[in-house]
Amino acid sequence: MARPADRTPARFRPSRAVLFIDGLMTHVIRFGGILVITAVLGIFVFIGMQIFPLFLGASVAELKSRQLPPAEYKILGLDEWSELPFLVDTEGRIFFVDLAGDEPPKQEEIPFPSERVITTVSYVPDKQLLVYGTNDGHFCVVSITYKRDFAAGGKVGATLTASDWFRIGPENSLITRIAYNDNGQRKLAAAIVEVGTTQEVHAATLSQKRTLMGAGELTVGDTYDVTAEVEGNPNHILVNSAADGVIVSSVQGEVEYFFLGSGGLALRQRFEPFQDLEDHRIASMDFLLGDVSIIFTNPEGVNRTFSLFIPEGGRERLFGQTKEFPALEGGASFFAQSLRNKGFLIGHGNQVSLRYNTTEAIRWEAELPFETRIGTISGKNDRIALLDAENTLHFYQLDDPHPETSFQALFGKIWYEGASEPKFEWQSTGGSDDFEPKLSVVPLIVGTLKGTLYAMLFALPIALLAAMYTSQFLDPGIRRVVKPVMEIMASLPSVVLGFLAALWLAPILETRVPSILCVIIVLPTLSALVGWGISLAPIRYRRHLKPGYEFFVFLPLFFLACWGAWNLGPVIERIFFVVTDPTTGQPVADFRRWWPQVTGTPFEQRNSLVVGFMMGFAVIPIIFTIAEDALSNVPGALRAGSLALGASRWQTARNIVLPTAAAGIFSAIMIGLGRAVGETMIVVMATGNTPIMDLNIFSGMRTLSANIAVELPEAPHHGTLYRALFLGAMLLFLMTFAVNTVAEILRQHLREKFKTI
């Protein structure tokens, strides 16, 4: 069938070149849109790949195994490089195992006196100290020092250094358990000794006099007998790394905590870790890195953590339960703390479990084909060594780069060491190796919302009312000047605004809060009264005032009201914001003191009020410009029809123009909200930058964007903090995406509701 002829006049027919270019540009635009979507998805995928490892568990793979000579080994330790581990048997002999080569285990001799029999030995892993106890009440400390000999091909060697023998407890006593620690200034040893048929608990400090010739001889200082304070038969004993605390447990399941203060070694606390269970005996008791937390198990395998903190209403740090892990199959047969973090290796029989105390998570767990007697973790937290019942030493590769994180740690409340209750907290770094990273992003989310809230509270009324007045009431000639000036405000760098907020605005607001309150109350009230008065004025007076020039009447009143309200502030402060000075007992008019006393919340110079004003100043031009365009683009016929029917200019603006432009105004608000959510430099410079969880307007905060700016330079590449910051970036991305999605849905709804034909 023949195609019907095109009857379109020739002058209206586009040329082939136009059609070609139109089709080409259509494909180019479509391709560009696909590229934009692909780029956004690519960013999303890249950030997701950085975050994903935070939620993975540990992986463990066996490397090698070595058969050891027959002996009853009690202690297993690893060097920094995991090349020369050592074992100690019940007789005190030390065996070094060469993992780098094929040499048989080598026994190192320690010249112990022949008349003394080793009855117990303990190990301080973070200082690599062995503590020997004997059958005649003496103890000795042996230090293990590793060194790589590059002259011998980089082979690792070990040197043993033994101290003198020191007495602890009465004569003719046999040491059954020994504990020791050294904080550099003080050395403390504690032991359970057997005297006849009774078990006693003794402690002793070691002192070392220093002279001009150097350090003197190490001798026993103060001695303590705390047997009378221990209820039951003692079976475990610990000394903390600060060398000021002794922990003793009894067969009956009680624990006594002794503290070494100026008055000597005194009982500070007595508690039962498993008093709520039928079997409340203690199978194992061991310190976690930092010696602030103790890991307990009972014979049934219940695994609990007790940490030191100041209870509510108390003044001293006491132990309280903070964590409970899934139970083992039985009481722990071995325990090893990580020297890098708050993780620990624990097991019973052939069950081995790697756990992390902060997040209360099991990082790895397995049922091995052998029964484990001893286990340990390397200092770099990258190797695990296990000794089975057949004296075979098994070595494993450990890969657990991000044990500090989990969904609970990032978004839930965590009971951190030293805290009296679970809380949301961000504190990525600390001053010591045993620091517990706190990576909850909830305070950052709250800070972001808090800064946005106060900025929008300041910006929205000013921006929207200014847009309404400019588009509907201001003279067109003046509008052509006002609108570009407002748009120029949007070009001000945020770092300049942050600089002004920190060094100029914050000191002013610190001392003039009552004046600010007066200005906030007086100016809107005056504006409403002036507008109401002009509208009620007789027409014979109003005809002398050209429409659009009414603000000239208000300007002098505006400046006069600002001056009056600002100077009224101190008067209001002297009347309503008076507190008693605790040092002099005299009444003082000071809002900075009044606020914390009345509300119980702090007053800081760099606070949310400063951020609200300055960030609001940055957001106002954006909202004003878009809202003014939306209001100005309402068809003139609608305004004319409303005015022709007798409505006033205000009634027309409120009932006709505002609903019609609602979609555009809502878009302006959402774009301003997105600008406030992502603001960085103003928040970094104008707040205390502290990640806290409150809506107090006179305290600071830290936002997600500010946190990235502050922390990223210090974050190790692909480290936990590095990936946690990417998580913050993802949250910002999702928040912005959610805001824009909701805004677009509501904008379309409003457009359909108020559309005009």
Report on the architecture of this protein.
With 757 residues, this protein is of the alpha+beta class. The protein is 37% helix and 27% strand. The chain is built from 16 helices and 33 strands. Strands 6, 7, 8, 9 and 10 form a 5-stranded antiparallel beta sheet that branches. A 4-stranded antiparallel beta sheet has the order 1-29-28-27, with no helix packed on it. Strands 2-3-4-5 form a 4-stranded antiparallel beta sheet, with no helix packed on it. A hairpin with a 3-residue loop joins strand 7 and strand 8 (138-149). Helix 6 (513-536) packs antiparallel against helix 8 (551-576). The longest helix has 36 residues, at 16-51. The protein is elongated. It starts with 15 loop residues before the first helix and ends with a helix.
Q: Please mark out the parts with pLDDT under 50 across 5 or more consecutive residues, or reply none.
A: none
Tell me, rounded to a whole number, the average pLDDT.
88
- Dominant shape: elongated
For the largest beta-sheet, the strand count, sense and barrel status come to:
5 strands, antiparallel
Radius of gyration computed on alpha carbons: 37 Å
Helicity range of the residues? 25-40%
The beta-strand count equals: 33
What order do the helices and strands come in, and which of them pair?
Elements: H1 16-51, E1 59-67, E2 73-77, E3 86-89, E4 94-96, E5 106-108, E6 118-124, E7 129-134, E8 138-149, E9 155-162, E10 166-167, E11 174-182, E12 187-195, E13 198-211, E14 214-225, E15 234-239, E16 245-250, E17 255-261, E18 264-271, E19 284-287, E20 293-297, E21 303-309, E22 318-325, E23 334-337, E24 343-348, E25 351-356, E26 361-367, E27 372-377, E28 383-388, E29 392-399, H2 407-411, E30 426-427, E31 438-439, H3 442-472, H4 476-489, H5 494-511, H6 513-536, H7 539-542, H8 551-576, E32 578-580, E33 587-589, H9 591-599, H10 608-632, H11 636-644, H12 649-660, H13 662-677, H14 681-686, H15 704-711, H16 720-754
Antiparallel strand pairs: 1-29, 2-3, 3-4, 4-5, 6-7, 7-8, 8-9, 8-10, 11-12, 12-13, 13-14, 15-16, 16-17, 17-18, 19-20, 20-21, 21-22, 23-24, 24-25, 25-26, 27-28, 28-29, 30-31, 32-33
Helix pairs in contact: 1-16, 3-10, 3-13, 4-10, 5-10, 6-8, 10-13, 11-12, 13-16, 15-16
